[in-house]
Amino acid sequence: MAEIVRKLIGTSGWILMTKSIFITGAARGIGASIAQAAADKGYRVGVFDLDGEAAAETAASLPDGKAFQGSVTESADIERALDDFGAAPDAVVSNAGIVRFGPLVDMSEDDWRSVVDVNLTGSFITARAAARRMIDNGGGSIVNITSINGVAPGPNSGAYAATKAGAAMMTEQMSIEWGPAGVRVNSVAPGLIDGGMSAPIFADEEFRKLRIAKIPVRRLGLVEDVAHAVMFLVAPESSYITGQQIVVDGGVVNSIIGNLPRPAFIDGVGID
Ligand SMILES: NC(=O)c1ccc[n+]([C@@H]2O[C@H](COP(=O)([O-])OP(=O)(O)OC[C@H]3O[C@@H](n4cnc5c(N)ncnc54)[C@H](O)[C@@H]3O)[C@@H](O)[C@H]2O)c1
User: Fold this and answer.
1) Is 269 among the domain residues?
2) Which helix (H) or strand (E) segment is 247 a member of?
3) 196-218: per-residue pLDDT in tens?
């Protein structure tokens, strides 16, 4: 009891309400990093993931974490988890995502549908469930994790790029529909991140160096870089920002033209 009272009453003596955040795909990678960043700021954290065991481990590593097993593609799973988590969360992060690499010309409908189902429909199901609760509660902040692949298509990105571009536009649509009810919706588009689903890509040292050389800030992104952007978007400091996408990529997307071969006769800096 004394513990609860201490939580409610800060050192100032004012009543403090613990903020809550619910994150999908939070068992590992970027989602787990967002969970840790939120916990560091004193949030109660809902860790939702298809992998229940890993979700339980991540939640147990946090001071006030709660794990939920389920799929974002199943409305009933998300509804049950949010009901179980308690009152409307202050923030919800739709982070669960999958990729199936390969040329579209060879892509099976099953692969296409599974990527659309998790990345786009799953984000819709999560945000809708969050918004219904937040609207009733007077507001909240939703963040959808997209990708630089939704800003610029990549080789063999298959359905992934289309779902991430779709999630960015869905974010804008939601922002105008839910803004009047106090619900802000933004997205964060990670670039080349040294972790999560991209970890195997950067395991090769040689290949890693080649990629870093093409990134304007000359380093790979960290999962924490993405988490910091998310924490800004759920904080009151961003209360006038909605419907926006923050690209966390060290300048990669903006360097597309700069990475094209350029003849030296134009300005003396290209190839002779
Ligand atoms: N890592 C990167 O380089 C990178 C770059 C751009 C965007 N992203 C995006 O960031 C998000 C997180 O990716 P990550 O790199 O941490 O990947 P990850 O594979 O490490 O983690 C994704 C998590 O989502 C969970 N998940 C998958 N399908 C699910 C479902 N149907 N329901 C619930 N949970 C499910 C997985 O179990 C896993 O724990 C994704 O949306 C991804 O597209 C990642």
Assistant:
1) no
2) strand 245-248
3) 999 999 999 998 999 999 999 99
- Ligand 1 within 6 A of CB of 96: yes
**31, 36, 40, 45 alpha-carbon torsion, rounded to 10°:** 70
Instruction: Indicate which CATH number applies to the domain containing 130.
Output: 3.40.50.720
* Residues assigned a catalytic role: 160
Whether residue 264 lies inside any domain: the answer is no
- 147 touches ligand 1 (CB under 6 Å): yes
0.85 exceeded by the pTM?
A: yes
Site to substitute for ligand 1 among 73, 82, 98, 194, most atoms within 8 A of C-beta: 98
Max distance between CA atoms of the chain, in angstroms, equals 76
Whether 220 lines ligand 1, by a CB cut-off of 6 Å, is no
Residue 19 resides in a domain: yes
Domain-embedded: residue 101:
yes
Token code pair at residue 131: 């918004």
Ligand 1 centre to CA of 203 (Å) is 18
**Which residues are within 8 A (CB) of 260 and not within 5 positions of it... i.e. 6 or more apart?**
none
Quick: pLDDT tens for 93-109: 999 999 999 999 999 99
The number of domains in the chain is 1
